[in-house]
Write a structure and sequence with these properties.
Rossmann fold, Carboxylesterase type B domain-containing protein, 8-stranded mixed beta sheet, globular, 1267 residues, disulfide bond, 36 helices, alpha/beta, 10-stranded mixed beta sheet
Length: 1267
């Protein structure tokens, strides 16, 4: 569905409209479908899953671009390589000649040879209205017969050519780099600036052409990506820079300077918020192997910085598109100098990049700058660029970025403030524009501008294209066979899947960008619409007219067990026919309105009844009346004995639906927090409304003509649904009989106090002091009858107050029904405007309840911590939050994998295990901890008021890379929390052999502990804002080896963007215990010590395989065997220099990197303690150790201090001094020697010879100094 909605249907619509106006003989259009299947799925990689869903969105790109950050280049003779050759030839044929010659049968598309190939009829209705319209597509598939067997992916390139290519163009002179390529070398000119950096006053302004430079521009390396937080990539870290408007030019090295090459300009995709032109993402190797084109790739501004639009000239918008246009202008002026043919430029792109290319076809300035177009998996007719309320979104973003007077200030004032807002804040704000994962798919997008100077797009592109107002160019357009699989990971996460399904009526219209009223059509088309299944009812004779009755149809799962006090879950369906011939139980109740207060019903009660006149002729759809019964929210039901349909059925013109919903304590208990969220009865009603919207058409009802009605509590409920955004789309008229939402009977009360009163009435221990979560847990285990019977004791006297249990004001949590006083919402006009019959009521204020214990819902999931009293000030502690998958089994000795998340609330009330270790610095040296240890702790002052963001300290513990942890018993937060001004994060990371073993190759890459730390930093960048932390003010701190780690993060390109200041306590990356050692030799030594076979000859991969099966405690014990003597060396296992493989943390000696200034510049606080060396003082306290050390000092000291042994001998030690007077009246021995200058070559002297002589004139009077 997603593939049809967002890619296939818009593509076909685009082609259909194109061939209506264009001369397809002169400007042909081709459609392709890329359907080659292999394991190289970029979508799978980005979503971190091995589940294969077919050739998905993005999966054609690895065959067009080398993506070395994700895949090794294909083996030259592999099937994938041959597929790449075909795919590149397809593109190059089109780029160079506007033709497709790879397949003889592939012809330009015309109205005569067009035929539909993918499901899209359903989308016509809500895209183009209800008119009947034909569809066009061409089913010419790139689907070869190549064998799909997988070969080795290792590839070694030849030595690069040393000559640096130089070009002097109109913009200036550039000096690039020759790359060896896969099959053919090519000239790469990286990072050429085409516009001034859009920073400071130029933020949110149209691009300004680059002012030029003197001499040669160094184009030998790529520049920064445009700053982004790519939600499609694991970890979702913020990366890049605002100074990013650069492009890359790639030219075959075979160019002789005579023939001009056709030019291909590539615009990357990424939902307008992610990716870039960097060669690790979109490498040119495959295209350069073809040797017939010049390729240009570019960066353009993304996200809020690239596409924010205020709806007026304050922030005009479309800056990313204008950047692309300026890059095209640069190509037109300069590409001839690189050997390109400026009269043969093909504009190409994928996904959002294809959408951009399509928009350039409709822009008068862009049209002259290219000559052909390739649209891969995207068009400007895609729903993800449908116009939205840009002015409203502008103020929403101003609100999210905490601008003053965001709702009333002028757009110019807000734009001025936004220009000064921290750029990371703007990037992180994008995540808040989503309602759910990829919902909407493109949260910030190109906008329709006014008719001002330099406007890029002033009309809806759908209208422009449909009316033929575009430049006619040859077009190659297509999709992959399973575009929609980019959303498939939702199906792999049970929590996300259930969440989506429960809210499908809310999420799907946002995700697919259509009106909610078409939900029935969409679900019918894709899922058969029969969400409930088949039902068999009963024929009733009625009073005057007969009717069809369908009793007791389940619309929700029974709210029992774990589902008690939870939002309703849609019914999972059934097989065969549901017996709908008799009513089901009422909802469990004690009816205080009836004599004797009868008890009746069941908790399994969420059923509804559908009544239809038997005279219905199946041609005309009948209007629908949904009835919500009365009963003060604690009594009555939909039972036909109470609300029989006979009178309405006698009328014969309407379908009636009645429903049960939870009552009393079971339906309306509310704890004031998320323990028991409340309003379950109202949420039941809402789910029943959704059931009607989905299913009533099958009963003969008109889902576009639904009236919601009710009496008493039912009338109040109806009025509340008018105020609920999710309910509003589910009905069209309202009838409120003897009840509205403004009645004093539902004024807010102290819901938490009532919750505890109920806990007292049912005799729960700790009803007064226990947490609401614990009390709710106990309530779920009680007999439902006991809860129902407690209800009458909430009255002061009989039915006083009338509604002792009532709808409550919820917090802003997932699934909340009512978050504000309905009186306020109604008085301010924030309700759906529908015809209704109602009586008036009044409006007064209310007071909210207070929440407890500390809970946070962040990107990672929801956590529930613990309140700690502290020393001087209390603080909130969130212990043991997982930031990575447990590094056990297959993940031992592997790079860190982000934690996959959890459902519900993570119990963060206690610390988790340390990383397994034997701390030789502590008495006893026992092995403790676990391999499942990648957790962090967050500490927040309890005084935090939720308004001001607090700076963050991330602390990395020391311990020679083999001991200690983040355990609060070792590194407690109390002193820092007493300060009350920061949030503290402490973390565990893998230690010892498990954390720092390195084989010298990719068998065991090494530096796993450092990679764990980096993953924790990424977690902080993504989540800390939700805890009240300022992600733009993170200080990375560490002590000893922890400080060394922090220092290393300053030299790691991935880590650098994740913190802003550094504290190095008694450690740096230049410390001798960090000096590189022979890690490959140490790897085999450890293999020997752990008893592995063939430790000295087996392949490292074989040894690594064996090591994954070794007991973890064995590795811990083995560390001790790496010491020569106590603390000798200080760090027997340490960070290593890795190769240039994916995920490498450190590829050069940090001493060299630091010396050459290749690090991020950040404020640093660094220092030592006065006697840092005292950690070795234990030797001096043990006579045996001291004697052993002194006897072996020439062996031990160089190892302990990490220097070459020769320096012991070569470096003299100053004399220790003497008492009294030294007898300097005679010369001492010569240094031991054999004097070859003297006869007989005498041997004389002594090794004890380091003496000197001083001679002074006796005339010295002590007044002046001699030279």
């Amino acid at each position: 569905m997603y593939g049809d909605r967002c890619f296939c249907y818009p593509m076909v619509t685009m082609v259909n409209q194109y061939i209506t106006y264009a001369d397809v003989k002169k400007n042909p259009v081709f459609i392709y479908e890329f359907a080659y299947e292999s394991e190289y799925s970029l979508a799978n990689l980005l979503h971190n899953t091995e589940e294969y869903f077919g050739v998905g969105h993005l999966d054609d790109l690895p065959y067009l671009f080398t993506m070395s950050s994700n895949f090794q280049p294909f083996e030259i003779d592999s099937p994938e390589s041959r597929m790449s050759d075909i795919w590149v030839r397809t593109m190059v044929n089109f780029v160079a000649r506007g033709e497709i010659k790879v397949w003889r049968t592939l012809r330009p598309c015309t109205t005569e040879n067009a035929s539909p190939t993918c499901d899209r009829q359903v989308f016509e209705r809500y895209t183009n209205g209800d008119q009947d319209e034909s569809f066009v597509s061409i089913a010419n598939n790139i689907d070869t017969d190549i064998c799909s067997s997988i070969l080795s992916l290792n590839f070694k390139s030849e030595k690069p050519i040393s000559l640096q290519p130089e070009v002097c163009a109109a913009s200036g002179c550039v000096r690039g780099k020759v790359e060896s390529g896969r099959k053919k070398p090519y000239d790469a000119f990286y990072g050429i600036p085409y516009a001034e950096p859009p920073v400071g006053k130029l933020r949110f302004e149209s691009p300004v052409p680059y002012s030029g430079w003197t001499g040669y521009w160094d184009a030998s390396y790529p520049r920064d990506d445009c700053i982004q937080r790519n939600g499609s990539q694991p970890g979702q870290i913020t990366s890049g820079s605002e100074d990013c408007l650069y492009l890359n030019v790639y030219r075959p090295s075979t160019w002789k300077g005579v023939k001009k090459f056709p030019v291909m300009v590539w615009i990357h995709g990424g939902s307008f918020i992610g990716f870039s032109s960097k060669p690790e993402l979109f490498g040119p190797e495959y295209i350069m192997d073809n040797g017939e084109v010049i390729l240009v790739t570019m960066n353009y501004r993304l996200g809020i910085l690239g596409f924010l639009c205020s709806g007026d000239e304050a922030v005009k918008g479309n800056f990313g598109l204008k950047d692309q246009q300026m890059a095209l202008q640069w190509v037109a002026k300069n590409i001839e100098y690189f050997g390109g043919d400026a009269s043969s430029v093909t504009l190409s792109g994928q996904s959002a990049g294809a959408t951009s290319a399509h928009l350039h076809m409709m822009n008068s300035k862009s049209q002259a700058l290219f000559h052909r177009v390739i649209l891969m998996s995207g068009t400007a007719l895609a729903p993800f660029i449908y116009p939205i309320d840009y002015a409203s979104q502008f103020r929403t973003i101003a609100n999210f970025t905490e601008l003053a007077n965001y709702d009333t200030a002028s757009t110019y004032t807000l734009a001025y403030q936004l220009k000064k807002t921290n750029v990371t804040t703007l990037v992180l704000t994008v995540a808040r524009l989503y309602a759910f994962i990829s919902t909407p798919i493109v949260p910030i997008r190109p906008c329709i501008e006014g008719n001002w100077e330099d406007a890029f797009m002033t009309e809806d592109p759908r209208k422009l294209w449909a009316e033929g107002r575009y430049v006619q160019k040859p077009i190659l357009v297509g999709t992959v066979s399973k575009e929609g699989t980019t959303l498939s990971p939702i199906t792999l996460n049970e929590f996300l899947l259930q969440l989506f399904n429960r809210n499908i009526y809310d999420y799907l219209p946002i995700q697919m960008e259509f009106q909610p009223r078409y939900m029935s059509d969409v679900l019918t088309y894709y899922f058969g619409g029969k969400k409930c299944g088949c039902v068999r009812g009963k024929f009733e004779s009625g009073r005057k007219k007969s009717y069809d009755a369908f009793y007791g149809i389940p619309y929700a799962e029974p709210p029992v067990g774990k589902l008690r006090f939870e939002s309703p879950v849609p019914y999972s369906g059934w097989t065969g026919y549901w017996d709908a011939s008799y009513p089901r139980d009422d909802c469990l109740q004690e009816n205080l309105y009836l004599p004797g207060y009868p008890i009746s019903g069941s908790e399994d009660c969420l059923f509804l009844n559908v009544y239809r006149p038997s005279s219905w002729n199946r041609k005309k759809k009948l209007p629908v009346l949904i009835w919500i019964h009365m009963g003060s929210f604690f009594a009555f039901s939909s039972n036909p004995a109470l609300v029989g349909p006979e009178y309405l059925m006698d009328n014969g013109e309407v379908i009636l639906v009645t429903m049960n919903y939870r009552l009393g304590i079971l339906g309306f208990l509310c704890s004031g927090d998320e323990a028991v969220k409340g309003n379950f009865g109202l949420k039941d009603q809402q789910l029943a409304l959704k059931w009607v919207a989905t299913n009533i058409e099958y009963f003969g009802g008109d889902s576009s003509s639904i009236t919601l009605a009710g009496h008493g509590a039912g009338g109040i409920s109806t009025n509340l649904h008018m105020l609920n955004p999710k309910s509003q789309a589910l009905f069209h008229r309202a009838i409120m009989m003897s009840g509205v939402a403004l009645t004093p009977m539902i004024y807010p009360i102290d819901f938490e106090a009532q919750f505890r009163k109920v806990a007292k009435l049912i005799e729960l221990p700790d009803w007064e002091a226990g947490t609401t979560t614990n009390l709710a847990y106990q309530m779920k285990k009680l007999d439902g009858l006991k809860l129902i019977l407690a209800h009458k004791y909430l009255f002061l006297m009989l039915k006083t107050p009338p509604f002792s249990l009532r709808p409550c004001i919820e917090g802003d949590w997932e699934g909340a029904f009512m978050t504000e006083d309905p009186r306020t919402v109604w008085a301010e006009g924030r309700f759906v405007h529908k015809p209704f019959v109602v009586e008036k009521s009044s409006n007064i204020s209310f007071k909210k309840s207070i929440l407890s214990p500390p809970e946070v819902c962040a990107e990672c999931g929801c956590v529930r911590g613990v309140f700690e009293s502290g020393r001087k000030k209390p603080y909130d502690a969130f212990y043991g939050i997982p930031y990575a998958e447990p590094p056990v089994g297959k993940l031992r000795f592997e790079n860190t994998v982000p934690h996959s998340g959890w459902s519900g609330y993570w119990d963060a009330s206690y610390p988790r295990d340390d990383c397994i270790q034997s701390n030789v610095s502590l008495p006893g040296q026992t092995t403790s901890g676990s391999e499942d240890c990648l957790y962090l702790n967050v500490y927040r002052p309890s005084t935090w008021n939720g308004k001001k963001k607090l700076p963050v300290v991330v602390y990395i513990h020391g311990g020679s890379f083999l001991s200690f942890s983040s355990n609060p018993d070792q590194f407690g937060p109390e002193y820092i929390m007493d300060n009350g001004e920061v949030i503290l994060v402490t973390l565990n990371y893998r230690l010892g052999i498990l954390g720092f073993l390195c084989s010298g190759d990719e068998a065991v890459k090494g530096n796993f502990g450092l990679k764990d730390q980096q993953m924790a930093l990424q977690w902080v960048a993504t989540n800390i804002e939700y805890f009240g932390g300022d992600s733009s003010s993170v200080t990375l701190a560490g002590q000893s080896s922890g400080a060394s780690c922090a220092h290393l993060h300053m030299m790691n390109s991935k880590s650098q963007a994740l913190f802003h200041r550094v504290i190095l306590m008694s450690g740096t990356a230049l410390a001798p215990f960090m000096y590189p050692i022979d890690h490959a030799a140490q790897f085999r030594t450890i293999a020997n010590l752990t008893g592995l076979k063939d430790f000295d000859t087996a392949a490292t991969y074989n040894l690594a395989y064996q090591m994954k099966k070794v007991d973890a405690a064995t590795f811990v014990e083995t560390v001790e065997l790496l010491y020569t003597f106590f603390a000798t060396p200080p760090a027997p296992i340490r960070p290593c220099i890795e190769g240039d493989w994916v995920g490498a943390f450190m590829t050069e000696d940090p001493r060299k990197v630091w010396a050459e200034g290749r690090y991020v510049q950040k404020p640093i606080l660094v220092g030592t303690v006065k006697n840092d060396g005292a950690s070795l003082s234990l030797i001096t306290l043990n006579e045996d150790l001291l004697d052993q050390f002194n006897r072996n000092i020439y062996n031990f000291l160089p190892i302990q201090m990490e220097f070459q042994p020769r320096y012991i001998y070569e470096s003299p030690v100053p004399h220790s001094g003497w008492s009294e007077y030294w007898d300097a009246s005679y010369p001492r021995d010569n240094c031991l020697q054999k004097n070859y200058f003297l006869p007989g070559q005498p041997v004389s002297g002594s090794e004890d010879c380091l003496y000197l002589n001083v001679y002074r004139p006796s005339t010295w009077k002590g007044k002046r100094n001699f030279r």
